[in-house]
Specification:
single chain, 365 residues, alpha+beta, Rossmann fold, OB fold (Dihydrolipoamide Acetyltransferase, E2P), 6-stranded mixed sheet, 5-stranded antiparallel sheet, 8 helices, 20 strands, disordered N terminus
Length: 365
């Protein structure tokens, strides 16, 4: 089945977007602490992704924002008001989950208007609001179809229309695209970004997909073991990770042995490289340097004119405008990935040299 994703046309805006926040939020399940004093603050109209591996606490944080989970301690704020004790149906928040949760016995029209019915909105206003919401997600004319007659991407757009039709102050999305195939997922995330930007609606988007998070966010909160390791723009998260975990989880990094040279540099195979954040490392301490594939330079053996590592090509993959080449180093014996121009072709067995560019790196023990 084909998928059409039109650019949404302007529609009446929802309620004024709200600033939302978690302040020192702790969540315990019995003896287990899932969130450790989490602070998270979103500006009105901002789209923030909670990114992290399974079990890091990102969905629990979202559920605390929604009111689906009571916080053990701390506060949940909407427009500066503490709503920690207010039930989910009183928080004026739209939600979209990984499971589409459409009512199978209802048409698209009935599914989308369900929240308006619960609010006892008149039939004429319901019809107008539903038409606006379906147009917004590119599903005008689908009113009389049932969920079984829709593709996965269409069902998720119905779920999005249902969340937006009440004109909520904030939108929460919990891995809404993970069940879709790759092409539809990319196109739908772009549409979601366009919609929330047009509406100016404050949005929290939970995902474990780093590419997804970097592509659509104003800011990203990288979570690990119930804590936020870094909260910044996608560019800063990728270029200047503040911890070894962030450097290792977001994007691809080579782990190279290093030695702290001074309070701003690390020696990596004899090359002095700036450090993004030193942390608790001491001068002379052995560390691991996390080096991005694009921050390495690869040349054929004999072409190098500076400090470099000798190696042999294991494989080289074509990525469109780029190539990623895997090299087995002679000393130390390890494998590293190098990203370079697609026109620079290397074959398995080619002898090469690899040097580290002077770009700031993260370091860890």
């Amino acid at each position: 089945m084909s998928h059409s994703f039109a650019v949404p046309s302007p529609t009446p805006t929802p309620a004024a977007p709200s600033g939302i926040a978690l302040l020192q939020v702790r969540k315990d399940y019995g003896q287990a602490t899932v969130l450790h004093s989490v602070d998270l603050s979103l500006k009105p109209g901002e789209l923030v992704c909670l990114l992290g591996p399974s079990g890091c606490g990102k969905t629990t944080a979202l559920r605390c924002l929604a009111g689906l989970e009571d916080v053990t301690s701390g506060s949940v704020l909407i427009d500066g008001q503490d709503v920690s004790g207010i039930p989910v149906n009183k928080r004026d928040i739209g939600m979209v989950f990984q499971a589409y949760s459409l009512f199978p016995h209802m048409t698209v029209q009935k599914n989308v208007e369900f929240g308006l019915r619960m609010r006892k909105i008149s039939a004429s206003v319901r019809r107008q609001r539903v038409a606006e919401s379906l147009e917004l997600v590119g599903l005008s004319g689908f009113d009389d179809r049932f969920a079984a007659q829709l593709s996965g991407g269409q069902q998720q757009r119905v779920a999005l229309a249902r969340a937006l039709v009440t004109r909520p102050r904030a939108l929460l999305l919990d891995e809404p695209l993970s069940a879709l195939d790759a092409k539809v997922r990319v196109r739908l995330r772009e549409q979601i970004r366009a919609i929330v930007t047009d509406l100016g609606i404050t949005t929290v988007f939970v995902t474990h997909d780093q590419e997804e998070a970097l592509a659509i966010s104003d800011r990203v909160a990288v979570m690990n073991q119930g804590r936020i390791e870094q909260f910044d723009t996608p560019q800063e998260i990728y270029r200047h990770p503040v911890s070894a975990f962030v450097a290792d989880f977001v994007g691809i990094s080579n782990k190279l042995p290093g030695l702290i040279e001074d309070d701003q540099h690390v020696l990596v195979h004899g090359q002095s490289i700036p450090v993004a954040k030193m942390g608790n490392a001491k001068v002379g301490q052995a560390v691991t340097a996390f080096v991005r594939p694009e921050h390495l330079r690869i040349l054929r053996a004999g072409e190098n004119i500076g400090p470099a590592l000798d190696g042999v090509v294991i494989s080289s993959g074509f990525l469109g405008s780029l190539r990623r080449t895997l090299v087995r180093l002679a000393a130390p014996k390890s494998e590293i990935a190098v990203q370079h121009e697609a026109s620079e072709e290397f074959l398995p067995g080619d002898r090469v040299v690899v040097s580290v560019l002077p770009v700031p790196v993260a370091v860890g023990a």
